[in-house]
Amino acid sequence: MASRAAQPRTPGTYVRRLIVVGYLFLLIVWPVSLVVVKTFDGGLGNIQGALSDPEVVFALQLTVYVAVWAVAINTVFGVGISLLLVRYEFPGRRVLSALIDLPLSVSPVVVGLALLLAYAGTDGLFGPTLESAGLQVAFAPAGIILATAFVSLPLVIRELVPVLQEIGTEQEQAAKSLGAGPVQTFRRITLPSIKWALVYGVVLSLARSLGEFGAVKVISGNIAQQTQTATLVVEEKYQDFEQGTAYATSFLLALIAVAALVVVTILRPKDDTDGD
Amino acid sequence: MGIEIRGVNKNFGDFVALQDIDLSIPSGQLTALLGPSGGGKSTLLRIIAGLESSDSGTIEIEGVDATGVPAQKRNVGFVFQHYAAFKHMTVAKNVAFGLEIRKKPKDEVKRRVDELLKLVHLEQFSHRLPAQLSGGQRQRMALARALAIEPSVLLLDEPFGALDAKVRKELRDWLRRLHDEVHVTTVFVTHDQEEALEVSDSLVVINEGRIEQIGTPDDLYDRPASDFVLSFLGPVTTLGDRLIRPHDIDITRYEHAATASGRITRWTRVGFEIRLEVTPDDALRPDPVQVVVTKAEATALQLHEGDLVWLRPRVGADAVSR
Lengths: 276, 322
Hints:
The complex is a heterodimer of chains A (276) and B (322).
Chain A: H1 11-39, H2 45-51, H3 54-87, H4 93-100, H5 102-105, H6 108-119, H7 127-132, H8 141-167, H9 170-177, H10 182-211, H11 214-220, H12 230-239, H13 243-267
Chain B: E1 3-12, E2 15-25, E3 30-34, H1 41-49, E4 56-61, E5 64-65, E6 76-79, H2 91-101, H3 106-119, H4 135-148, E7 153-157, H5 165-182, E8 185-190, H6 193-199, E9 202-207, E10 210-215, H7 217-222, H8 227-232, E11 237-239, E12 242-244, E13 249-252, E14 260-270, E15 273-280, E16 289-294, H9 295-301, E17 308-313
Helix pairs in contact in B: 2-3, 2-4, 3-4
């Protein structure tokens, strides 16, 4: 904060602030608050109603299950790919780096469709093979996890890459010269240095995974109590004139994501001391 | 014993970093690798440490072939120019790192860390993070960390390069005294000839991937093997057809058997020194000659800018024999 120069406040200052605050209010705060208001319209009735609906309970459980798996997969591969991108020079590195952003730019519906083409049980490319091996991907939780991992793949990597670039390799080399092997160096030196970036990436990836709709809708088949996730339930309930349940489910979904962000913000050390 | 380097070559793409390096570094001494930036001295140091691999050749450390041995098994202490402090660990934890990796008992680690922090005068900072230390303190911590593993050799890569002039001078004296206490075979890389001459027992001058000369500071200063060594170890100027140090030129105001004569065309006073530029009359060698005299000499000779003077090498002046 110290780097921000204190400038004299003019009427222009207040006008600019008003524009920014007004924009954020109309775009984010007001609509989201309406969901909260609608949820608690009749006291706790909507929440209680939603939580006693087996479809909603199943969908919330499935969503959390899928999100945890997708995040776990993205954490492991995210760290691996980030190290690969930053620490090694190889042919195709730039192409790989560009490919990683693809899930952010391609519509999730397209992702769902693509996965369906590859993994559908009867006419997909790998689907029949996997199915005969006992693993159903399309219209099953495995497919939902795959689609969710796909769309949230870049989030961990985009948090880690700049941090890895900034810390450089000298600390790792020092650890090596002091006798630490690759695993010890990673665990004691690299991991603590990228810890907060990783946590942040994981939380963003979790929030994104909880909220995925398009890709999941295509690949899951949207079968109630089998492959229907929370976002799909919200859509269905809303269209079936069960708005109260839809609002309550939306509220619970948002609550988990916001809670994760809040916890990280509180835990994250305030002054990021670097050793330069 | 010490470090034996034989036939080491290293290329980065088309760039030849090291070419046919053969070098014996004796045990227990403080050796400086001196040379201009990009000359290959840091690469050589990193090859000794195992942080870089050579294209060919062998490295032997204290009688053991280390050529294919990974860095973490070489038992080499390495100190980096930018400290490479473990930012998330306290000073004590930094120093303890190598010992904890070696799974030493806790009380032994603690005793050794206390001992080393005392040695580098950081005992009151043991619970601080590196970010809370000055550059000089961080580098002393890095040195204690490298010494903790009782390395067979201690390697320092431009250890004082990132520090300001005053701290650099202090640390340099301190490193010399520390080495007299610890006696570990030490190699340090520097491009600062004063640092190398002042601190080291022996000097290796490296330029463009080759060793120019090896010797004691006196050897190199008094008997340089090439114009490069002569000019790298201190200021030089051309008098007649030889390179000579500006303070090794005799200057008089009266005609005598001289190598060159001419007028004083420039006069710069720096503290007790006066740096003169004399432009020779000789049309064949018109380049100005640099001469350094003390203020007292200049006063005694009644020198002024524009005076006609005669120049010749002092008796016993350093020069490269041709």
